[in-house]
Amino acid sequence: MNNKFYALAQETGFSMWQDEPHRPHNSVIDWGCDYTEEFENYSEQLVKWVVSRCRSHYNSGITNWCEVTLREFELLDKTLWGTSLGIKHPSWPDNMPG
Q1: 72, 66 in Cβ contact below 8 A?
Q2: What is the C-alpha separation between 11 and 59, in angstroms, rounded?
Q3: What DSSP element (H or E) covers 59?
Q4: What is the three-class DSSP state of 4?
Q5: pTM score over 0.70
Q6: What confidence score (pLDDT) does residue 37 get?
Q7: What mean pLDDT do residues 32-58 have?
Q8: Sign, Cα dihedral of 96, 60, 12, 1
Q9: Cα dihedral sign for 32, 47, 49, 96?
Q10: Which segments of the chain does DSSP mark as H helices, in order?
Q11: 16 SS3 class
Q12: pLDDT score, position 13
């Protein structure tokens, strides 16, 4: 799991597996709990992170701040899952690194 997402999951109250012998292989989050509130908080924090990246790009004078932010998110998505969430600007090449 990406370190940023792991830290955000911990910060928002998800229960993380440690070295328990009954831990499912390669599992990070213990999904045996009701995470309704935690998921809402996680989603809110993730949106705030994306908005802060947009604002940072905009304030630094990048004229295509929205495209740059979406590109960052697309690369992050490919890094995590090796796939795409479908967030792609028509001008981006199909062989975009990531």
Answers
A1: no
A2: 27
A3: helix 36-59
A4: helix
A5: no
A6: 93
A7: 87
A8: positive
A9: positive
A10: 3-11, 36-59, 65-81
A11: strand
A12: 92
